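Anyone? Bumping this.
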Amino acid sequence: MGNTVHIKPSLLLPSIACAGPAVGAAGAPATAPGLDERIERFISPLTDWIERVILFPTPIPGSDAQMAFVVLWLVVAALVFTFYFRFINLRGLVHGFRLIRGDYNDPKAAGEVTHFQALATALSGTVGLGNIAGVAIAVSIGGPGAVVWMMLAGFLGMSSKFVECTLGVKYRSINADGSVSGGPMWYLSRGLADRGPALATLGKICAVVFAIFCVGGSFGGANMFQSNQSFQQVLGVTGGADSWLAGKGWLFGLVMAFFVGLVIIGGIRSIARVTSRIVPLMGAIYVIAGLVIIGVHIDQVPAAFALMFSSALGVSSVAGGMLGVLAIGFQRAAFSSEAGIGSAAIAHSAVQTSEPVSEGVVALYEPFVDTIIVCTITALVIIISGVYVDGGAMSGVELTSEAFETVIDWFPYVLAVAVILFAYSTMLAWSYYGLKCWTFLFGESRGAEYTYKTLFLLFVVAGASMQLGAVIGFSDAMILAMAFPNLLGIYFLLPTVRRELDRYWAKVKGGELPTWRENLKRQRR
Amino acid sequence: MNEKYLVGLDGSDCGERAVVAALQQAKISGASIVLCYVIPWSPFTFSTAEENALRHKRREDELARASELLLTPEKKRFEAHGIACEIVARHGHPAKTLAQLAREHQVSMIIVGVLGDTPLKSRFLGGTASTLIQISPCPVLVVP
């Protein structure tokens, strides 16, 4: 998903703090007092407070760089998982690819959710503004070197996804209506209950706290931020501050809320289905366009990589040197891949398999695709085009847009459409995640569902009406906060996952897991 | 050795004609029948999280509906003529799944209608029947 255009003076380094207002001003509506402003005045004291509590900056020892504590929390966990599972993020890749390709699909289970489908669904919730805008922000404030750290964080994040998604499948539950639900609220409460009465209480607390934050995240980063950014994009395309839409964010919000409402309240599933098919297409167009630009400038690619790696160790313009660059890269990666946040486990848990680890191995590809491949392409395009050097006036989607424009001049329009579609699909995906957590808290009933859905739509309108600065702080805070209960509980479940992994891996290596081709050969004999 | 035919239904008139042809053949040879209906499905499609959550339930509903509404009435027709008949409903690529079923049940012949593809699809991608002819492990009788 894509909560990302997040530039906050309090968290960044003094020398680049000036980038904050620049982003906020980019395409921001003219500030005439109106409905938009009144909505903002009503909500922002609350969102500011939440943001301050969760995103408090932690100084990095031996440097004047700072990093939000929660980002440190995510990176440490990813590092621990990577070592504890002996680099599963490397050794699982080949087997994961064969699972996605369908080598192990049982023909008799055809019609169930395949590994490919579970991965694609989870990816469409994650790929989006985070990869398009996030890299641009990392490059513009941290220099090209930040991308290297972003890729490293994405690589480590693969291990977090592995653990989450394995647990998501292992502890999923079948509801009364026959639907499957899984995710952190289930593995935290059930998984820890398996490990003794003392941990059962902790598990219950973690699950409830997670569900609360997830509902908050679904209102914030997955909703307000998305509607806010798509409004900014539409505003930019229609003429910026001169646009007749300027100051009418609430109107745009109402339209957006109407379309979201059609699906989540009106039950018009066909729209959601169409969106779920268009979004991968937009993603593919984006990647192809990026490759075309890289292809045009293929001779500059080695130099671009050299620049990235040399500046990863520190740029004089970035305070804190190497650690400053590292902090920026890690933070952006956390927003881009959502590894450790727990959201992906909800999407992955519907897969058909009797082996939870198999889905964990497939989930390795999620950060791989969205934080390593897509981000590298975006970064190369930005660096090769050289637009990031032209001064700090632009950041986020605009910077990416200009970088693409240098070779394909009509691409900003395609990007505008892509941004709206990504935003829309992220909203739909997260409205489902949020609803699952809401019903976990309040029980499955029509009343509870409609309450959640109505609130969700109200936040769409609020997001479009508010200024970027107020929205992103809250969005980031709520989404990242999910990592606290999620990872805390996961630490206690690590031995369980290790046992599952070792058993499954022995099966794969021992040939006890025949592919359908091998089965076919046996039948023919 | 007892012969066994695999008959593919698709709910259209073509499938119906395949059943009639199978009846005649089976009466002559005394073969038993495996009657099947393939629900078109691909493992590589995109879906929403909500669809995925309900997929398992929906799959069972689809299979149950296929065997109740389509397969069971036809099965009774065969049995009325004293021909042994089993039924299978399965998701998948129609031609590939028919070939797979032919292998699983070790049938001696597949009998299908010119299955209900749209003219455009069969023109450009090849119809189910023509694909089946190329990948089938046994003779195929295609009923127009």
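Late reply, but here is one note on the structure posted above: Chain B touches chain A at residues 39, 41, 43-57, 59-60, 62-63, 90-92, 97, 100, 103-104 (CB under 8 Å).
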